[in-house]
Design goal:
- The complex is a heterodimer.
- Chain A is built from 28 helices and no strands.
- Chain A is mainly alpha-helical.
- In chain A, α3 runs antiparallel to α12 and α12 runs antiparallel to α15.
- Chain B has 2 domains: about 230 residues, P-loop containing nucleotide triphosphate hydrolases (Rossmann fold, 3-Layer(aba) Sandwich); about 110 residues, Beta Barrel (OB fold (Dihydrolipoamide Acetyltransferase, E2P)).
- In chain B, the strands form 4 sheets. In chain B, strands 7-8-9-3-10-11 form a 6-stranded mixed sheet, sandwiched between helices.
- In chain B, a hairpin with a 2-residue loop joins β4 and β5.
- The chains are: A mainly alpha, B alpha+beta.
- At the A-B interface, α10 and α11 of A face α2 and α4 of B.
């Protein structure tokens, strides 16, 4: 008994029982559920119709499925998708794991400036990279010509299935790198030093100790890359076209032109089939992440991290990193940049003579291209900020709560991840056409924005949540014990503390929105041009000069964002 | 015969000098402890010997061959030094079984599988772990993990074994048993060992010689008896035991015994360092040297017993004499609040300049 208390504790003013209290949270949860599931439901519904949903004669049937399953092109595309996805895993997992080990655990020189370069392929859109490979290493690519001149016929073919798989694999190395490096950062150095003193060389240490210990994370990244393999669109669109290699996404994209009639029902079927492959993989990933902690029951003594001395091995290590950077970043980016500044190239054409700025002048003379640049900046800056606001609302609705709604949201944010951007754009198009009252919005940037925001929900939630998690639970619990309600804690304690985290999330979302290309493809209309989607449609029309120049402008925007992010010390990954 | 020679090792991280010229020798079959407070550079020194830190100057020789020589730009990587290192955290690889952990060093040395198996089993049997080969590290107790870490470091017969705080991860009771066991093992196998510890009792129990490090330099080097019984500096005296310490003024210097004016009256003490008439001196007396006497006498002062604490094997008293507080050990319960005579024996009082 607190008999010594001289006065009773001052009664807390009861938090006003506003009808809105708690309602805001449910509203957020409801809207999120709606925008995530409605497009997917739309695809599912459309796939069960015999014709596009706006056609009068449609009936519910499985005809569309029958058609697709009877189409040999579908099986060809499925086979190619499988081969490419498998090839990507085979290339990106070992390379990404090795790079992560070299970057995180060793004294490799120049790690600080290599890191942003390593992540470039994540922040440069795949169409731009694909285009870069065509102009740099394609049959009449600039580096190919040099190679032929110096060493004779080249032995590679970027238009072959193997070429596509290798390029896709190399450009997905950063995804594996991110997960493997995060895990390696949490590993104590002592287990590696123990191996060193036992007589293991640095590469043996990587093979026998460090990488096996982070195997769960690597496995996780492997599954990620595998399902990304089913979602790749830009690379096979550009590189697969000359030899007619279709993958599932390009098969779907080309269905319309193949049949010459609106074939939404068939596209929906392909979309459903892609999601049927990717969604189980996303769930598998989640399981893997859960078991990751269990696998390593005792870690080394965390915290203390001493880079492993490479000694004489450093030259080999530098060679590995440099080779990957050359193949994945330098060749395509330099190719596309060079291409944008020349009128033509080929045997015997001097690049200096062919130099021109005309490509850029042309861009600024075309209204739709200028609009695309403005729109792309706008969607990144304004749209990015709004998206981060939404992500933060969703994150707060589940922050340190453990009820059924929070668990539902955990799964819900994973759903868009299983949907390739191309499909999401299509689904949103249908939602805008189908739901009465939304038609006017269809040709506005809002349509693009909502599709972008939903498609990057999982990524955005991860960056925002990792910012929220940096606020120690003690700080929040302290506020609760002095009498703050959950909402007050969020507004008055957590939010002010995560301001910087949200700003850096904004920068990351900006980068992602700048590079996005596939989501806008079906939402492209006069007034809603964005660079990424425009590149896809212009590439089909063969305007290589403009495509190259626009790509360089896109790269410049992303680079600017990257420089700002690095300048402010934003961590590009967790 | 000298196994390991460390000469004038310098090492710094940026502007921070961690080791500022450390030299010592380790003879065959000898156990040397590197003792010091945190930040003294003891672990860094051990890691430099192991090849995990890169000193900026000095030499490290093993059996006369250089492992590290700054003058020649030679720095053998850790894996080529063939030393055995036992980590503070044990650093057992969680994805390998006990037998795989222990056998890894042999596999790296291309020892045939059959021989590896016999040697691993022998090493495990030797440490009382014979039946645990197929277990994973997390299935073992702390003490067992420590033994596995030792087995792993010994299995390829390294010329010198390095131990980084080998006992600090064990709980207090287990630590004393493990200390005796480890010392017995080292003696039985005639190992040459270099051991890092921050615990002076552990250092004294484990080693033939102790190097006390302070701010990257050796403060004092010697046998445990020398360090405990004849500390050359105030720091050593303070570090090595439980002490009473107070300030006094030198009345008469010259010779080994000095005459002081202490807070409780005149005092005879052993002078250490340059003491002159009128200087301030720091007097250190070990707790176990303070005696409770029956009446007045030289080096005795009257004091009131503030409290007596029962520690099981003895009593600890806290006396107060004016501003001076003295702690002492004894074997009898005494009445608190009463006046006693406390003797600080002249041969056990050390007076340091400062």
């Amino acid at each position: 008994m607190m008999s010594t208390t001289t006065s009773l504790p001052a009664a807390l003013p009861r938090a006003p029982r506003l009808p809105l209290r708690g309602l805001g949270r449910w509203l957020v949860i409801g809207v999120t559920t709606l925008v995530v599931l409605l497009p997917l439901a739309m695809i599912g519904y459309q796939s069960l119709l015999s014709a596009p949903f706006f056609m009068p004669g449609k009936v519910v049937s499985l005809d569309a499925y029958r058609f697709v399953f009877d189409d040999p092109d579908f099986w060809f595309a499925l086979r190619n998708s499988l081969l490419i996805a498998a090839g990507m895993v085979g290339i990106s997992v070992p390379c990404g794991a090795l790079l992560a080990f070299l970057m995180v655990r060793t004294d490799l020189p120049g790690r600080r400036w290599i890191e942003p370069l390593l992540l470039t392929p994540i922040f440069v859109s795949a169409v731009v990279l694909a285009l870069g490979y065509v102009v740099a290493a394609g049959p009449s690519g600039i580096f190919t010509l040099w190679w032929r001149h110096a060493f004779g016929p080249e032995w590679w073919d970027v238009y072959s299935l193997g070429g596509i798989a290798v390029i896709a694999g190399l450009t997905h190395v950063p995804h594996v790198y991110l997960y493997a490096s995060a895990a390696l950062r949490n590993l104590g150095s002592d287990v590696e030093e123990a191996a060193r003193t036992c007589g293991a060389s640095p590469l043996r240490v990587a093979r026998d100790v460090s990488l096996p210990m982070v195997m769960p994370s690597i496995l996780f990244a492997g599954v990620l890359v595998f399902f990304l393999g089913f979602e790749v669109f830009g690379l096979p669109l550009v590189l697969g076209d000359p030899n007619g290699y279709l993958v599932l996404t390009t098969y779907m994209y080309k269905l319309a032109s193949k049949l010459g009639i609106p074939s939404y029902h068939l596209m929906a079927v392909v979309a459903m089939l892609i999601v049927a492959v990717t969604f189980p993989l996303v769930l598998l990933q989640r399981r893997l992440l859960r078991s990751a902690g269990k696998y390593v029951s005792i870690k080394g003594k965390g915290g203390r991290q001493v880079p492993l001395r490479l000694g004489g091995w450093r030259w080999l290590a530098i060679g590995i990193v440099a080779l990957w950077l050359l193949l994945t970043v330098v060749i395509p980016v330099s190719g596309v940049v060079l291409r944008s500044f020349v009128t033509q190239w080929g045997e015997g054409i001097s690049l200096v003579d062919a130099f021109t700025l005309q490509n850029y002048r042309d861009i600024f003379e075309q209204d739709n291209l200028v609009r695309a640049i403005v729109n792309t900046l706008g969607i990144g800056v304004i749209g990015g900020a709004l998206a981060v606001g939404c992500y933060a609302l969703i994150a707060f609705s589940g922050h340190r709560r453990h009820d059924a709604a929070t668990r539902l949201m955990d799964y819900l944010v994973l759903v868009p991840r299983a949907v390739p951007g191309l499909l999401a754009g299509l689904a949103f198009l249908w939602v805008f056409l189908f739901v009465p009252g939304l038609k006017e919005w269809r040709n506005s940037m809002f349509a693009i924005w909502i599709a972008y925001t939903v498609i990057w929900l999982a990524y955005g939630m991860r960056v925002v949540q990792s910012a929220l998690m940096q606020v120690g639970p003690d700080l929040e619990e302290a506020a609760r014990t002095v009498g703050a309600s959950a909402g007050q804690v969020s507004r008055q304690i957590t939010l002010p503390l995560v301001r910087f985290g949200l700003l850096s999330s904004w920068l990351l979302v900006f980068l992602i929105f700048e590079r996005e290309y596939s989501t806008g493809v079906y939402l492209l209309s006069p007034g809603t041009e964005v660079i990424g989607a425009l590149l896809v449609s212009m590439w089909a029309s063969g305007a290589t000069d403009l495509v190259a120049a626009l790509s360089v402008i896109n790269i410049a925007m992303v680079s600017l964002g990257l420089v700002v992010a690095l300048r402010f010390g934003v961590k590009l990954h967790d | 015969m000298t196994k390991l020679t460390v000469q004038d090792i310098h090492l710094g991280y940026g502007p921070v000098q961690v080791l500022q010229g450390v030299s010592f020798n380790l003879k065959a079959g000898e156990v040397v402890s590197l003792l010091g407070a945190s930040g003294s550079g003891k672990t860094t020194l051990l890691r430099a010997v192991a090849g995990l830190e890169h000193p900026s100057g000095g030499r490290i020789l093993l059996d006369g061959k250089a492992l590290f020589d700054a003058a020649q730009g030679l720095n053998l990587p850790a894996e080529q030094r063939s030393l055995g290192l036992v980590f503070q955290s044990y650093a057992l690889w969680p994805h390998k079984t006990v037998a795989q952990n222990v056998g890894y060093g042999l596999a790296l040395r291309k020892v045939p599988a059959a021989e590896t198996q016999t040697r691993v089993q022998a090493a495990l049997d030797n440490l009382g772990l014979g039946h645990l080969g197929e277990r994973y590290p997390f299935q073992l107790s702390g003490g067992q993990q420590q033994r596995v870490a030792i087995a792993r470091a010994l299995v390829y017969n390294p010329p010198v074994i390095l131990l980084d705080e080998p006992l600090s991860n064990l709980d207090a009771k287990l630590r004393e048993e493990a200390r005796a066991w480890l010392r017995a093992l080292i003696v039985k196998m005639n190992l040459s060992a270099l051991c890092v510890t921050h615990d002076q009792t552990e250092a004294m129990a484990m080693s033939d010689r102790i190097l006390l490090l302070r701010n990257g330099r050796i403060e004092q080097e010697g046998t445990p008896q020398e360090l405990y019984g004849a500390p050359q500096t105030l720091y050593t005296a303070e570090f090595m035991g439980s002490n009473n310490r107070f300030e006094a003024t030198v009345e008469q210097a010259g010779g080994n015994t000095v005459k002081l004016q202490g807070p409780g009256g005149p005092l005879l003490a052993q002078g250490r360092g340059a003491l002159r008439h009128g200087d301030k001196a720091q007097v250190v007396v070990r707790l176990e040297q303070v005696r409770v006497a029956e009446g007045p006498g030289p080096n005795r002062l009257p004091a009131r017993l503030v409290t007596a604490m029962y520690l099981g094997d003895r009593w600890e008293y806290l006396f107060e004499s004016g501003d001076l507080r003295l702690r002492a050990f004894g074997h009898a319960p005494r009445e608190t609040g009463a006046q006693h005579w406390v003797e600080l024996p002249a041969e056990a009082c050390w007076a340091y300049a400062g």
